Amino acid sequence: MVFKATTHQEQLHSTMDHSAAPLYEALCLYERSQRTSLHVPGHKDGRVFDEEALGRFSSILKIDATESVGIDGLHHPTNFIAEAQTLAADAFGADHTFFLVGGSTIGNIGVALTLCSPGDKIIVQRNMHKSVFHGLMVAGAHPIFIAPSMEPTTKVAKVSDLSFIEKALKENPDVKGVWITNPNYYGMSQDITSLANACHQAGVPLVVDEAHGPHFGQAAEVPPSALSQGADLVVQSTHKMLTAMTMASMLHVKGNMVFRERLAQVLGMIQSTSPSYPLLASLDLARRYLVTKGRAQIKETVKRLDTKRAALASELQALSIWEGSQQVDHRDPLKWIISSKNDAVSGFQLLDMFYELDCTAEICDPRNVGFLFSIDEREEDIEKVVRKIKEMDEKLQKMAVPDPPDKSDMVLFEEEGTLYKPALSLHEAFHKPRKRAALQEAIGAICGEMVLPYPPGIPLLTPGEKITANHVKTIRQLKEMGAYFQGPSDETMKSLYVLC
Predict the structure, then answer these.
(1) pLDDT at 39
(2) Exposed, middle or buried by CB within 10 Å (0-12, 13-18, 19+), for 118?
(3) Residues of the chain predicted below pLDDT 70
(4) Do residues 168 and 146 make contact, with C-beta atoms less than 8 angstroms apart?
(5) Cβ atoms within 10 Å, residue 206
(6) Looking at the 3D structure of the chain, how many domains does it have?
(7) Is the peptide bond before 456 cis (omega within 30 degrees of 0)?
(8) Residue 357 sits in a domain of what CATH number?
(9) Cα-based distances in Å from 66 to 54, 71, 132, 292
(10) What's residue 40's pLDDT?
(11) Is 410 part of any domain?
């Protein structure tokens, strides 16, 4: 088999048999054996289950096995899971791959606990998913936040320029690593080859949250993968852009900068001792599908999407579709970013309006909504989405839209490259007593909760950070635009917890 990667247009060769799915095949053998189950789970291969729902669940219940003879165990794989992970490592260009059944969340928490002991410092891109901050909190690490760059048209955060990260490494030679998100949730991806080299010269690993890029590097038509550019640890949500079931993800390791045995030990601590075998098998099958069919399908899907996107760009009147910019090295063609040309219409409003047209977007923010396509999209399915976008465009042209609010002063992050350490570490702040304060009165206090506009799950404030007037203003602006905040102590966002 020959697989063409995107980085330097190299050609990678594999002699492994990717038509096999060893873990899935083991579960099928388990089902056919029809042995009497005298072990968990309690539904006994589907024999004892809700009758009304059995028709939907029966086929899955028959392979909803547990660690037993002939199936292998996730936390010390020696057989079918080990084989499946080896095939996955080969497909994605890793030295070793760990299967995850708690999403990329588990991968990020595992990385934090592997790299950081209490008090250790690590450089962290500030626009990370909340699971990264939770991992650092549990690990007792002291993150050094670096403010991201902002794409000028969409105002979406992306990886900070290399010079800023190099400066941070020089000023903090005792850090345990550099941790970035690439691509962002909208598919914007930076070339990180030089960053990986800079990290390695400093003697630290580069960790990449590549949750939205498991398909990267799998065809010349999509951006290169983080592993192919020198990253040491890469977390991927295989369920987001590939075909695994929800919560099924992978953690890839390359090189010798990460203590692999410790990582395996940590994952054994934070993942269930009774993992879902259907989820694990879906990772095995997602890899097989990708290698045997998906890579070719990506090529055809990208051609179809690019043709439709280019036509839309010239036809839309009230809406616009992002076509890339010089500040972004790679654009994921499976993601479309749609925004209103009238700033009075927010991305939050567009999300709701598209939903009313039976079109559910993946993500939204003050300006944009993001559409996510699969690796295999038929012409008629893409055309259906195009019709919905055109319908929305016509609807907006006829709407009486008020004067747009001023979004120019909305500050989500500090100026690009700014380094700042929270007043208290996440771990310290989590364990401090706290009290409620009105939003205006909280200015100058230390935040006692995570302020989380969602999606995408990037905290505006984390416990231990000092609350500024800009934070308060941005919270009010987001709330007025219709933003949803996940798990706040006050649903109205008129108050929040501060540390005593």
Answers:
(1) 85
(2) exposed
(3) 1-14, 69, 401-409
(4) yes
(5) 27
(6) 3
(7) yes
(8) 3.90.1150.10
(9) 20, 8, 29, 28
(10) 87
(11) no
